[in-house]
Amino acid sequence: MLTSSFLDASILLPSLFYILGAFLVFQVLFSGIKVLLNKMAIHYDPYSLRAALGVIYIMSLLFYMEIAATHVQQSWIYINFELISIIFYTVILSANKRYYYYFFPLILLAFMVLNSALTSWESWCLSFDLIVFYQALNHIKNHTKNKFPFFKYLLVSIIFGFLYWFFAKIKFNISNPVFIHQLVSLFVMELFTIGYIAVLFSDLESRAALFRDATHDRLTHAFNYDAFDIDLRAIFKDDNQPSTKFTMMMFDIDHFKHINDTYGHLAGDEVLKEVVHIVQNVLKQSNPKIKLYRTGGEEFNVIFPNYKVEQTTDIVNRIFSAINSTPIHLKEKDIHITASFGVSEISPHDVSITDFYSRVDKALYHSKRNGRNTITTV
Hints:
- It is built from 13 helices and seven strands.
- By secondary structure, the chain is of the alpha+beta class.
- The radius of gyration is 29 Å and the shape is elongated.
């Protein structure tokens, strides 16, 4: 708790800046470790890294405060900061993994042992309050898909914060004026903390929206050529050698210009969107990690990561059949379309992206020159 006893001031402004400083220090540590791991070429999951570092960081802060509190008469002076730490860790840092749910009670038990509080019923009530508080925040976090649940977080924080201070009042024999003052301070700190987190989430959502616009085709919502170029180049190392086995499929809607000339460009747009929908359904059923890219007007690419060409046969045939057998519903009538395909696997002889891309492109045009509506694999 960042109270007047800790900061030698009764105003909340220094406390709020202290909380903000704790957030920024963690972000600096997290960014620094990521840079170090990247330089050492060590593979890591950023979410798990952030959660693990969060545990160490929050534990270090809480341990310091527990040790410091043993040297002052008012051993409850850090309560508000402990509650804010729960919010900070759960909402921002905690990974969505089940073992974290069991790890948290063990931490509380360790602190009870440290404080010789195992025989105090008030301490057990305080610990139970924190456990349920943590679980409630996690429940909100894991059951929210769109907007940041600001008021839900705030309401839960107020309820469990009040209960925690209620049991602390009994345990430490805190006077009513101090009790009310700490509740008001906690409310302001919760409002500030959750509001600050909401701003961070809003910024992340804005950047995510910009990323989607930069990497996705506006009409069909498939990945666009820029995303395709980035992903394809990532396959190759600095010396232009492929870093892994993969296969690529390129396909083109047959006689698309005729569709535009006959039914209009709006109808052509509907055809493109429907084709993307058809292909993505097949990919979703096969392997959600496989991406579809719209790389030209009616031209599309699919990258099969870690697939040999023979392993893609079933998926390619299913896409081919789905496009051929699915009628496109237009206002005037239903039309049937076909597509030409080219498929190839990366080769040790491909010393550049151009070598590989050109071979897949030649396979596609072989299909187009030989009657269309066929698959050419090279």
